[in-house]
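Q: What does the predicted 3D structure of TELO2-interacting protein 2 look like?
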Amino acid sequence: KAGVVRDLGALVEAADCRWLFGGLSPATLGELVAALNGYAAPPAQEQDAADVPSKDSAYAAAAERAADVGSVFLHLLAKLEAAKTQESLGVPVVRPILCRVMGPIYIFAATHIAERPWTNARSQLVAQELLALLVQAAGCGSVAEFLRGKNEDEEGRFAAVMGLLKPELTKDTWKRNPATKFVFSWTLPHVTRPWLSHYLERVLPPSLLISDDYREENKILGVRCLHHIVLNVPAADLCQFNRAQVVHHALYNHLYSREAPLIQIYCLAPNQAVLLCLLDLLPILERAQRQQKQARPTAPCDEVLQLVLTHMEAEHRLALRRVYARTLPAFVQRLGILIVRHLKRLERVILGYLEICDGPEEEARLGILETLQCTIEHAWPRMPCRVPVLLKALLKMIWDVHTDQGSTAELVKAALLQGATDCLILLDRCSEGQVKILLEGVYSSCEENRVRECIRKVQENT
């Protein structure tokens, strides 16, 4: 078959446009492109198969087939571009052909454009060239414009692409073609507000389906897609038919995951996973509750923070402690003065995290110091009674940082000391000078210059 495909590529390259497009109907050319796309597809998997192997002979053969098929598609698009300028053919003949072949060719390019087990350097290069030529043939300036259209009134090719993907994005089929989830998750971010709302019914179900899988890689892909939807679909559309509640339920369940990459921002891509996705979704849910005049003792943000704090108290793994601590300030900012509902448990978390060094970068401690600053700023009327406990914890942390002989960089130590000093200044302000009074004896008895400098900053602040 490989020889037949190469011969077909040579035939298309040498063929006269009038013979090629005058003798073959758009439907026939569409079927040919679809057949070639199927020939180049990665080997099918069992529905409940384990992870995709990094490389094997079947995938290596698929990469070679894809490179050959991609060359045929390149010749075909080049002929279509040439046919546009011919008097006997022109745009009226070319347009229906393009409509038939653009969807399958796009899916082929998206399948092979990135490094995957079923690609190699040659197939990736062909896919990149093919996608660029496809966008040009459609008269567009970018992949996003190709998919969504040049303006809101113009329909792009996203509907056609999703129509082709739909049979492979069902509960019983999405795992059989290992490329399907990647094509969908690679394509979705190109369609943004205001276009995405037109396709909500097509993109939300597969995003939920992928995020609900037991494999962490799939969960991350699904959450990434859900976050893109939350950011790019109007709140009114998300709230209709309880869609926002469904998304919230799916994300909330992921908070029970013990895997740091899923809960945090995924380190290999600019996506924002569960906690930050929830932070963007929570205002939408709360607005819908207000509009429906639902009286609830706690808001969705309270429920999420309660669960996060419960996990934080018992968490011993440094990777997850860092994730939680980095995200916690955003929850405090989100709740504002309502953070007072959680002060008792939040105080326990802050004290516990200030006590433990978490490595050279000290991400957990820095995040907790930022959390404490936000908490003091928003809940200052409730802080004076907590001054003795917080002051003791901050001074102990300052001493630990000063005496640390480990691998912590000086810049990190300086950031920790500055963060602790800022917290002490805020505590002093909200307690009407109590911190200054308590620090007088410490300053006079302390002989360490670095610690004395932190105390001096607090005492001199007005």
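A (community wiki): The structure tokens above were generated from the sequence. The chain has a mean pLDDT of 87. The two ends are 82 Å apart (CA to CA).
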